[in-house]
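re: ur msg from earlier - yeah i can do the NAP complex, just paste it... oh wait u already did. ok heres what im feeding in:
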Amino acid sequence: MKIAILGGTGSIGEGFALRWASKHDIVVCSRDVDKAIKAADDYSNLLLSKGTLCCGITGCTNETAIQDVDVVVLSVPYKGMVPLLEKLKPFFKDQIVISMVVPMAKNDKFEYTPPEQGSAALEIKSVLPETVKVISAYHNISAKKLADLESTLDYDVVICGDDEDAKKTVMELTHEINNLRPLDGGGLESSYMIESLTPFLINLAIKNGLRDLGVKFL
Ligand SMILES: NC(=O)c1ccc[n+]([C@@H]2O[C@H](COP(=O)([O-])OP(=O)(O)OC[C@H]3O[C@@H](n4cnc5c(N)ncnc54)[C@H](OP(=O)(O)O)[C@@H]3O)[C@@H](O)[C@H]2O)c1
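and the outut:
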């Protein structure tokens, strides 16, 4: 598959590029083409140095990337999400869009701050054409562990979405990342539950001196 990662130069985007590049063509996307190309080169060189086979990692602007890809990963901060999607709207057709975006604010602790639609995922669905298949996943994964290829990711990933085939594709992509267990979380209306877990996990980590917390259902 061809996968474009919007925000691919950032913390969690890097991990997905590194983890999926052995089986898929990855397009690292940025607002700045030079930054995208540099990140793509850095990721390719890292995989090369580890002897990992890589289908291909290229870099380009957000606009040029998404037109001919199967999957668009949305890994940008919430505050930039709607302006970016409004700008890219004409380039969306029927791609799968995976959102891991968590709307949250830091006051005396981290708090979930959903939009009026109820969750970031539902807001994305309201902005993009109806033919786009929005899937919500990976909100509770540590970017640091994802980008560390030596790290075992012993987490569950709850995946929500209204298109069953698209959800199946994202479950398969999740299976490809070592030890991650995909779980079907139902329709997109349930996304607020997994989005809101992220600030809760961060608060738990801070209060208890823990790091890189995730979720595992036993
Ligand atoms: N970090 C984590 O552990 C983690 C875990 C789960 C979910 N998430 C979610 O994943 C998303 C990305 O998190 P992150 O930590 O990777 O963020 P980040 O590193 O701060 O940003 C990711 C990339 O987004 C782009 N960006 C920043 N501001 C933007 C704006 N206003 N408009 C358009 N693009 C913008 C930047 O790329 P360019 O400058 O190259 O355009 C940046 O490299 C967030 O929504 C977060 O809630 C993060």
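cool cool. The first helix runs from residue 11 to 20. ping me if u need the other ligands too
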